[in-house]
Automatic annotation (TrEMBL):
Pfam families given in the database record: APH
SUPFAM superfamilies the record matches: Protein kinase-like (PK-like) (SSF56112)
InterPro entries: Aminoglycoside_PTrfase, CcrZ_PhaseVar_Mediator, Kinase-like_dom_sf
Name of this protein: Aminoglycoside phosphotransferase domain-containing protein
Domain Aminoglycoside phosphotransferase: 9-203
Length: 247
């Protein structure tokens, strides 16, 4: 795609993203940085969702979407309800995705830390528990796999869910846990989000286990980097909180 202007978008932990301007308007460009688990999906399969930006172009090196004019996402009841309905639509869809990548990701991230220094005690402490949780999980539901707060984009057309590069099949409780702990929801916000998703559509015990898994995967993922993408204190705190809830 030929463009008139290209401006780097700050943020993101490993991707290079840009706002590009063409004669047809503004678009969002991501330069793909491949690992063993991302960009395995056929992005055209997302076209049926009205909460996913329009796909413009996709190849092995880059992907281009319509550009979303972002507004502040306030985690009030209206927005939490919309986020919950988005997740429910994903989970109830017939979206065809790669098989679950959760166990392979956990093992690869954990192995990458074996020879690093200053690794948190929680890496060893929770490894077997996290593996066991994955073994017990359902793997038949389409998942976004990274639905933290920054991947919900508020616009004047509603909320969009972006950054689908790690999407796979798996257990819906993983996505729910990711929304809750990845958006730092308080108890009231979490309660309303889950009520909006539907109390008949999830299991509280499985959700507690999924929270532990989400935080553990985040911990081993982030400690592979020489410089942490963000502070790990809340992640470690969530691990201990969720192991107590699990017990």
């Amino acid at each position: 795609m030929k463009y008139i202007q290209k401006n780097k978008i700050e943020g993101g932990h490993k991707n290079k993203t840009f706002k590009i301007k063409t004669t047809d308007g503004n678009f969002f460009l991501k330069i793909k940085k491949h690992d063993n688990f991302n960009h395995k999906i056929d992005y055209k399969n997302l076209n049926n969702f009205n909460f996913v930006p329009k796909l413009i172009f996709d190849d092995d090196n880059e992907i281009i979407w319509e550009f979303l004019e972002k507004q502040e996402l306030i985690l009030n009841k209206e927005n939490l309800s919309e986020m919950a309905q988005i997740m429910l639509k994903v989970h109830n869809s017939k979206l065809v995705l790669p098989i679950s990548n959760h166990k392979a990701r956990l093992i690869e991230y954990y192995e990458a830390l074996k020879h690093k220094e200053n690794i948190p005690l929680e890496v060893e402490q929770f490894y077997e528990t996290a593996l066991k949780i994955i073994e017990e999980f359902d793997i038949s539901t389409p998942l976004h796999n990274d639905p933290w707060m920054n991947n919900f984009v508020k616009t004047n057309r509603g909320i969009f869910l972006v950054d689908w590069e790690y999407a796979s099949m798996g257990d819906k409780h993983f996505d729910l846990a990711f929304v809750i702990d990845g958006s730092w929801l308080n108890e009231d916000q979490e309660y309303f989000f889950l009520q909006s998703y539907g109390i008949e559509n999830y299991d509280q015990e499985k959700l507690s286990k999924a929270k532990l898994l989400v935080n553990y995967l985040t911990l081993v993922w982030m400690h592979r980097f020489d410089e942490l993408p963000f502070d790990d204190k809340i992640i470690k705190s969530n691990l201990h909180k969720n192991i107590n809830n699990k017990e």
